[in-house]
Task: structure prediction
Amino acid sequence: MSLKKTNKQKHKKKHKLLVIVEFVPFWCLYMFVRALPLKAAYFLTRRLFSLLYLVDFRHRRRSQRHLIHAGVAKDKKEAWRIAHRAFLSFGMLLTEIIKMDQYFKPEKVVFRGSEESRKEAFESENNRNVIVVTAHYGNWELAGTAWAKLSKIPMVSVMRPFNNPLIGRYILRNRTSGVHETVNKRGCVRDLLKALRNNKNVALLVDQHAGTNEGVETLFFGQPCRTHMSPALLHLKTKVPIVPMISRRVDDDFNFEFVLGKPIEYTPTGDKEEDIKNVTQLYTSALEKLIAELPEQWLWAHRRWLNIHRKRRTPATA
Result:
């Protein structure tokens, strides 16, 4: 079987019956959480994900090994503790996705980190549009709309289609708004270029493994990985600055902080390939620094690195 055929099979659509079977329990949980007070909802989803941590052996073990591999946890005991908290953080995110329209207000977001980035994007008379690079950290779902409302500049972000479109429809209800639109990941660079040229902000999640055609090799927590190069391409093409940021949860009362890295404005050397790699490493390192401050809100189960939890591709046969 050829590799090309295998990839096509891998991305086959789910059967309609399976989509419905998956959706029904999600819908029941969704409606129940919406009806609960906020703290009761947090309590419920934290308990559910604490239980998931115990029964989901594969992702629990992978998260723990990644924490040690990255040098964030010094031993198995510390890796267990941080990985468990990461699962709880994801449980809290579920509550926040469901209840975002009930509790979120832009004024509940405060800023930390780079004053230069904050002033450039939010506090000048003519706020400058930027390329926001962020991670699956804290509550990344509210970042696009919150950034647009606070900066008073519309936001365009990239969306990967959900495996279950019915679940995706509910998740996306609160992701987009009148000031925040999404574009499909496939062929998104053209849409993002158009947005930047129309003085809009764009946002990209760049903390997951990128395919050979989408990324370049970088170092993340000292280990090799392949990182999406789209922000680098956009920056080198438009000169719009890149701002690394994470959306960190600060309590269980729907308060968050945007933690900002320094703006990246790179002077090209004339070697396009090297320039792309250099810019990609700059924002990869910036996100690493932000995540390392409080690592328990990042999704450590991602297969991020090239030298752990990644199978070697075998040559295709006819």
Observations:
- The two ends are 6 Å apart (CA to CA).
- Residues 13-297 form one domain.
